[in-house]
């Protein structure tokens, strides 16, 4: 099997000519709203972005904010979210609080005129997300959904392969992960977001699955196992002429395999000459300039999304093409429907 080592693929915003790759050095002063583990991982990743300055952190517990600031050399700490977003030395706020607080905290920062990068899921439901995006639009600032998966080089490469027809017409997606929002976003990556699928969910809160049915015989089969399950967490996109596999862990992959199983129009499993199907494996090592401990795999891959934020704001953009508002809302509508069905099944 041919192996190819790539340090990076070209990010979509750069490939489209929208941004300058050097603009990761564009200066932005970050405020971190919430001092939990994910906020810490995001702040650590910012240390690898040339233009990023960790200016402030806020937590309801001042001791926790002080400890966060001391550990990461953050300039100042606050026991008040309101005080931090009012700080004139903060350009952009990272919201890393619990999902049900995202709307409140994001609107707080947006109303103060700050750009916002909010953890996913962006909100508790699609209606809240729409309100948040409307507020950002009213103020002409960025609100970016924290779907960091879309910024990994392997995902950037998968998008290019799909666009270039390397697997023919995408027909089916299969993905599994305990957090539904991660696997939902694979469907529009393969099929686009112009049409809303119907969804059928089975199972309850502990373990469930969903089938997204798109017009034109396209489908996504998504599994949501318990957190401690041993499912492979491999994301696969099947097309008429091949298949893309995003290696474990599928939500932050550093490996992509392109399978081209149809030789002479016959899928490899039905051929009789035992000739191996053509495959190409691509590896994307994590950034060499960031070496930090993390609670979960590849968390310093947050760096990819952070770099895109700097490039896009330097270019005057208020969204990143890797995960636009329209695509985020597409996924939020699906997520809202799936969570409603999961809750109903669990309470039946």
Quick structural overview:
It contains eleven helices and 15 strands. With 348 residues, it is of the alpha/beta class. Strand 3, helix 3 and strand 4 (76-78) form a beta-alpha-beta unit.
Number of strands: 15
> Main β-sheet: number of strands, strand sense, barrel status?
9 strands, mixed
Q: Report the total helices.
A: 11
Order of adjacent strands in the largest pleated sheet: 1-15-14-13-12-8-11-10-9
Structural write-up:
It is a single chain. This protein has 348 residues and is α/β, with parallel strands linked by helices. The protein folds into 2 domains: 19-147 and 303-320, NAD(P)-binding Rossmann-like Domain (Rossmann fold), CATH 3.40.50.720; 153-253 and 255-290 and 332-341, Dihydrodipicolinate Reductase, domain 2, CATH 3.30.360.10. Helix content is 32%, strand content 22%. The strands form 2 sheets. A 9-stranded mixed beta sheet has the order 1-15-14-13-12-8-11-10-9. β6, α6 and β7 form a beta-alpha-beta unit.
Question: Could you list some keywords that capture this structure?
Answer:
348 residues; Rossmann fold; Dihydrodipicolinate Reductase, domain 2; 2 domains; 15 strands; 32% helix; 22% strand
